Amino acid sequence: MALEIHLATSRVQKDLVSNEDPKHIVTPGEVITADSGFMRGHGTYMEDDKLYASVAGCVERVNKLICVKPVKSRYNGEVGDVVIGRILQVGQRRWKVDIHSRQDAILMLSAVNLPGGELRRRSEEDERMMRDYLAEGDIISAEVQAIFSDGALSLHTRSLKYGKLSQGTLVHVAPSLVKRRKTHFHNLPCGASIILGNNGYVWICPTVNEDTDHTGGFIENTEPVSLADREVVARLHNCVIALAQHRMMLYDTSILYTFEASLKYQVSSA
Amino acid sequence: MAGMELLSDEGFRIDGRRPNELRRIQCRMGVFAQADGSAYIEHGNTKVLAAVYGPHDIQGSKGRAAVHDIAFINCQYSMATFSTGERKQRPRGDRKSQEMTHHLKQTFDGAILTHLYPHSQIDIYVEVLQSDGGNYCASVNAATLALIDAGIPMKDYVCACSASFIDETPLMDINYTEESSATPQLIVSILPKSEHLVFVEMNSRLHEDQLSRVLDIAVKGCSDIYHILDRAVKEHLMEASIPLSSDT
Amino acid sequence: MSSCTRFDTVVPLHYKRVKDCCTISDKHFYTFVNEFHKDTYVEREPGESSNDRNDRAIRTAAKWYQKHLQLCAEDAGIANEMKVVLLTNDTDNRNKAKAEGIMAYTVHEYVKSLKGSADLIDRLAGLDSKPRGLKSGRYLQGTFQASRENYLEANVSVASREEMVFIQGHKNLNRGMQEDVVAIEMLPESEWSCPSSMILEDVEEKADEETDQEDAIVKTKAAKGPKLPSGRIVGVIKRKWRQYCGILQKSVLPGGTRHLFIPAERRIPKIRIETRQAAALEGQRIVVVIDSWPRNSRYPQGHYVRKLGAIGDKDTENEVLLLEHDIPHSTFSEAVLACLPELPWVITDEDLAKRTDLRSVSICSVDPPGCTDIDDALHAFKLDNGNYEVGVHIADVSHFIRNGTAIDREAQNRATTVYLIDKRIDMVPELLSSNLCSLRGNEDRFAMTVIWEMTPNAKIVKTSFMKSIIRSKAALTYAEAQMRIDDPTLTDDVTKSLRILNSLAKILKQGRIEKGALTLASSEVRFHIDSETHDPIDVQTKELRETNSMVEEFMLLANISVAEKILAEFPDCALLRRHPAPPVSNFDPLVTIAKAKGFTMKVSTGKDLADSLELAHIPSNPYFNTMLRILTTRCMMQAVYFCTGMVAPSEFFHYGLAAPIYTHFTSPIRRYSDIIVHRLLAVSIGADASYPELLDKNKTQHCSYNLNFRHRMAQYAGRASVGLHTQLFFKNRTVDEEGYILFVRKNAIQILIPKFGLEGTVYLVEQKGASLFTYNEEENTQTADGVTLSVFDPVTVQISIDRSNIQHQKLRLQLVRPVISGFSVEPQPVTSSAPPTKKIRSK
């Protein structure tokens, strides 16, 4: 069996964009500016009236605010972000959700739509039923509702587009690679849906036709998926990985282009 | 060579270095996909792999006892059973590894901006693949790279270097042979930009009058290492971030 | 072609020597570290032996070097005329090298092609087999010790053997000289011989060819005593040549340029030198160095360096003495003097703050008369609880001699003050030795103080150490102190403290003797020097008073206390003094002699020995016991300084004092060891800072070698000075004196004259004539004319100066009593030139 090995050294150095302005790259402990007229943003710290970088990455400046954006880091949540998460723990009126943030996010029982879309106070009955709604290991899509003072995130799924995800594949990329767009839910023309979580989790699943199925509920769709759909999902999965590997931004168009470009390679029968 | 001559009359050390020379350092960042940050470093024949996970929610019993308004640093130092000349019985948990674990924790407690991550934990796993002296130093340098790779905010790099003192000459970055002959051994970790010492350990006896000379060469070693690491980090950044901006 | 480059891949056997050569810069040796060069490093191939790999590395380096020279020459635009020659005795390597186009020869081939190669080849011959032989055990390595008595005999002390290897005859001695490191080969047992027990001096100049006959004579004359393991020297590994003092031997041919030089040191052979100034040098002491000792020459060859002065002149003779014992005696350099404190010396408040003020305590010092370097002072008083407080105060020399200063380096090199009869070679400049450090009466001085609290039984309850400032109330001599103790009318503080000290010292001494400390004797004398001519006018043995022993006891105690303290504080780098127990075989002569007199000596432990010595008295011969003790002293090993980190703790013991540990603390003015000990003590009580060398056990050990060497030399010089003055004393005198036979030899008896502390030889056999005496080897006696001379017998001898050889005057002893007709001489009539006949008898 022939093996194809790519060594790190054989990777092509991309000088395509060298015409751009050289980016201001800093490493921890480096002085960004000694000018005291700037505001301290993420990835920086002040000492002796100087602004230092605390992470390695590019300096980004918005008016007076200076941030350093690391190439790779855990997800820093912002209210309104779409995230994909995995249930870690079922607790008192809340679920703990892993969203690759620095702390586990919380999904309050009061922040989910009840099955059937009932709007009422959550009863003790609901509390007992929590594990039936979402059990450990389930994958959900949700939106960041609020950020606690210690940095922990609170999620909600009170929209029909959010909720439990049943059949599909989860890809894990760096959060910074997911481009912020108006929508992160895409039904791609190739016959699959993709949810690009801002937290770097990407969900790919076969497109379900009925829009009505977005119940925001907790029903698992366990119907068998056709081979063609599976192949599309798998191809998309690899496309996302390939893009991430080359540190290309992820959004519908980039994924679609990649998908199309990949079509000339067929699944080998072996 | 006749006998064990750690420093020859011609001024060469047993491995052919001059007293003020480092061993060849090679490093790579981002060697693991699963970890938040990872790095691999070689100091001559000492080879170390470091992986960083986090910050994430506190896990395990150790973290529960930690102070909650800052991040808890969890370290684990282990040596592969095949890392030494004689096969090791167990890779971690022995006294030496525990001590080293503790040293690493101390070192990074001082450098990571832990107050940014309350209720969180940062795991640093260090594995020595091949041991040829300066295990602590290589571990610290590898962990620094892994932390940078993980995007964890730090005051500065942490660079570590060892030094010894033989025949009135301070030696930089000592290898196993030099370490195991009964000579003083000074291990230093510094924040290279401010030259603050974050960790100093001294084995065997050295007269205080000579300490400053040995300390100087160790600090010089640290700052040399810093330049090597910084270049490696910048290269890594360039490589990683060019496409990022290409389509903004 | 004068430069030689060594490659670093070397055969370890010669490594050290080759390396030593390379450090001599004017010989143009250079080392190229091929192992660490990218063009010359070679990796060991699978299946290749490390030897082959090294050979290949050498060839690669040689090839590279040739190419490198070529390139350099091209760069400089000149033709390259330099050739790289590879010297190897490995045939395989040589052939391979030749095949690769390298010029390769064996060392012999190469050397033969050089000019004046004969000598080199000769040296090579020895070199070739030596190291290999040493390694295989065929040859042994040792230090050459020439016999003092017989120039054709020597011993070699080999580290791996307990007893010395005996070497006899020119052939076997093979040009070895005193202190050389030599390689020897053991002779088969059938060829072993024993010392001829003859005292033989190389008197006449002989041609080189005569050596063989001489050897034969020696052989035939060899006694039939027990055979000693004998060997022959195969080569000299390291020469210990130095400058030698001596005189020119009168040449047979006047006006000739080739002369023989007679060194003052008897164990050094005569040296052949060439000089045109022979006439001017007659009667002069001169200095000569050895250049070489060719194989075919009977004598080493050297050249004249400088003239010291006339023979017999006291200054010249002193100079000879100092040079011969390698004693640094030049005046102190400017740099050293610059380290001295400025006068007037004042005690600052800072000094006071750091020191305990003991100026109100009644401290006094007790020393020999005329002593100007007072190291020690004492005090004692009764405490309220019935115990005594006893203090020993030692001059704080380390306050003035700081580490690393010029004065410190000088003192470290000198290591000790050397006392000659009429001269003192100070270790530190006089300002310190006789003034600032000397604990003079009624002056404020700095001291290191040891204070004990002792019970009336002299048991130590508490020991404390401090830096102090003291004011001695009285600087007494031993006699004065004794007088004060004995005078019941005196009740002042000083006297009271002396009495306490005296009584405690007696208990301490008793305790020490019970533990097995040895009281040994040596004959010490004092010369009365004429104040104008500086010639000795009378001799006395030193008297010992109770107060001597009193001071000694407390000094011993202080030394032991300090030793304990510094050992506890610095287990690895304390400087102590040990005295190894001598091997039992050392006592054999003593045991034999004592047995002949009917005493059994037990020598297994120090305690046994001390007890047996105590018992051995002959009422009719009061000096017998003293002589026995003198002989015992000769069986002892040397006490040495050492660093605790370098010696096993079981060997710290001081045999003579029966102390588990011991050091020198009490005489820092005259011994450098004490300065180190002071520094260690100061660090351990937090009174001073340490410095790297002080805590480095290798450095301390190295330093202690020098201390031991200088110490020994100072002793020898002191003895030689006594000898010199004895000779001067007898310059115009002929004296009959009582003495005792110390040894009976085959052709002589050795006599000890207690009055002068002098030891001399009475030759029983004239150079050629037949002996009147019959030597009884078993009983160790000489008999003639019905008179038997045996060891310890009292005799009377006539002492005079033998002027038969004007250049080399010797003390001559002739037997007066017992009268042996035809041998003994007439007693000297009592004349005015003889010293007062009052006999000072020691007990």
UniProtKB/TrEMBL annotation, chain A:
Belongs to the RRP4 family. Component of the RNA exosome core complex (Exo-9), composed of EXOSC1, EXOSC2, EXOSC3, EXOSC4, EXOSC5, EXOSC6, EXOSC7, EXOSC8 and EXOSC9; within the complex interacts with EXOSC4 and EXOSC7. The catalytically inactive RNA exosome core complex (Exo-9) associates with the catalytic subunit EXOSC10/RRP6. Exo-9 may associate with DIS3 to form the nucleolar exosome complex, or DIS3L to form the cytoplasmic exosome complex. Exo-9 is formed by a hexameric base ring consisting of the heterodimers EXOSC4-EXOSC9, EXOSC5-EXOSC8 and EXOSC6-EXOSC7, and a cap ring consisting of EXOSC1, EXOSC2 and EXOSC3. GO terms for molecular function: RNA binding. The keyword Chaperone does not apply. GO terms for biological process: CUT catabolic process; exonucleolytic trimming to generate mature 3'-end of 5.8S rRNA from tricistronic rRNA transcript (SSU-rRNA, 5.8S rRNA, LSU-rRNA); nuclear polyadenylation-dependent rRNA catabolic process; poly(A)-dependent snoRNA 3'-end processing; TRAMP-dependent tRNA surveillance pathway; U4 snRNA 3'-end processing. This is Exosome complex component RRP4. Residues 168-207 form the K Homology domain. It is found in: Cytoplasm; Nucleus, Nucleolus. Its main location: cytoplasm. Keywords: Cytoplasm, Exosome, Nucleus, Phosphoprotein, RNA-binding, rRNA processing. It comes from Ridgeia piscesae (Tubeworm). Residues 25-62 form the Exosome complex component N-terminal domain. Residues 74-145 form the RRP4 S1 domain. Gene3D superfamilies: 2.40.50.100, Nucleic acid-binding proteins (2.40.50.140). GO terms for cellular component: cytoplasmic exosome (RNase complex); nuclear exosome (RNase complex); nucleolus.
Automatic annotation (TrEMBL), chain B:
Pfam families: RNase_PH (PF01138), RNase_PH_C (PF03725). It is found in: Cytoplasm; Nucleus, Nucleolus. One of its GO terms (cellular component) is nuclear exosome (RNase complex). One of its GO terms (biological process) is poly(A)-dependent snoRNA 3'-end processing. InterPro entries: ExoRNase_PH_dom1, ExoRNase_PH_dom2, ExoRNase_PH_dom2_sf, PNPase/RNase_PH_dom_sf, Ribosomal_Su5_D2-typ_SF, RNase_PH. One of its GO terms (molecular function) is RNA binding. Residues 21-153, 156-221 form the Exoribonuclease phosphorolytic domain. Its main location: cytoplasm. Keywords: Cytoplasm, Exosome. Component of the RNA exosome complex. Belongs to the RNase PH family. Non-catalytic component of the RNA exosome complex which has 3'->5' exoribonuclease activity and participates in a multitude of cellular RNA processing and degradation events. This is Putative exosome complex component RRP41. It comes from Ridgeia piscesae (Tubeworm).
TrEMBL record, chain C:
It comes from the Eukaryota. PROSITE patterns: RIBONUCLEASE_II. One of its GO terms (cellular component) is cytoplasmic exosome (RNase complex). GO terms for molecular function: 3'-5'-RNA exonuclease activity; endonuclease activity; RNA binding. The keyword Hydrolase applies. Residues 355-687 form the RNB domain. This is Protein DIS3 homolog. It comes from Ridgeia piscesae. The lineage of its organism: Eukaryota, Metazoa, Spiralia, Lophotrochozoa, Annelida.
